[in-house]
Amino acid sequence: MEQRGVGVEIVEVGPRDGLQNEKRVLPTSVKVDYVSRAVAAGLRRIEVAAFARPDRVPQMADAEEVLRSVPRSPGVRYVALVLNGRGLDRALALEAARPDEINYVVVASDEFSRRNQGMSTAASLAAFRDVAARARDAGFFVTLTVAAAFGCPFSGPVSPDFVRTVVEDAGPLDEICLADTIGVGVPVQVSELAAAVRPVAGGVPLRAHFHNTRNTGYANAIAAVSEGFVALDASLGGIGGCPFAPAATGNIATEDLAYLLNSSALKTGVDVTAAAAVGTWIGGQLDLDAVPAQLGRAGDFTR
User: Fold this and answer.
1) Could you tell me the residue ranges of all domains in the chain?
2) pTM (2 decimals)?
3) Of 75, 93, 203, 276, which is the most buried if we count CB atoms within 10 A?
4) Residues 262-300 pLDDT 10s
5) pLDDT by residue (tens digit) across 136-166?
6) Are 147 and 107 in contact (CB under 8 A)?
7) β strands within the chain, DSSP E
8) Which residues participate in catalysis according to the annotation?
9) What CATH class is the domain 9-298?
10) Which CA distances in Å does 162 have to 159, 167, 183?
11) What b/e sequence results for 9-21 when a residue is b if at least 16 CB atoms lie within 10 Å of its CB, and e otherwise?
12) Are 179 and 209 in contact (CB under 8 A)?
């Protein structure tokens, strides 16, 4: 691995992607506490909310209140998921409390896109281009997440060529995130997708989002670092999943990923012990018997 000694950014997605698949809906005050604890553990880029329909994703119904209440600190950037133009309007209406970044999801599968967003991938891309232009004009950093890039729960394998077409047709943006939404990916796919999208990405940084459904998430994370991805999504405790994809279990765990990267001389800025404590804490708030993360049980190892 040629990345030793450099930094890899961990994007904490627990307060959004982690909580949205949990049955218990947490009060705003607990969500804000969750974010504050993540910041104290060294995380500096945190997805805190989604502007989604409350009837479909009740866990995110208080998106505005969360963004008004999270602590604002120098160097800490907050991300919100936006699904359409109405979501962007909600973000803009927050004015001083608005997020720093917008994350928009386009699904690399027509079947999944229709079930999840009620439109084809091409239609979703057209909507993204409009939202991205408005968001960038308003000063937001814009990420396009290509969901189901590694496989679709309804139609099966997804071609890297199709993912390349999605990226090529996306238009101007600031970051591309390739997501294994249902946790079917393996390291060779990471390499194949990187090779497919990089020629059409125009130098835009690559980020990856892995779920550990089939216990390949951490291997995929290392493969992504080796391929030059500069940021990796993870959730404290390894909580989460996708409410619209069958059997999509949690994200790779922030504390476990930070241990892996820190111990490989890849700087993350995350305090593993503090992160593990937050992972255990959020599991308690959600009434989980145990969280998927291992570090809360095993502890750090001093080298």
Assistant:
1) 9-298
2) 0.95
3) 276
4) 999 999 999 999 999 999 999 999 999 999 999 999 999
5) 999 999 999 999 999 999 999 999 999 999 9
6) yes
7) 9-12, 45-51, 77-82, 101-107, 141-147, 175-180, 206-210, 231-234
8) 242
9) alpha beta
10) 5, 9, 19
11) bbbbbbbbbbbbb
12) yes
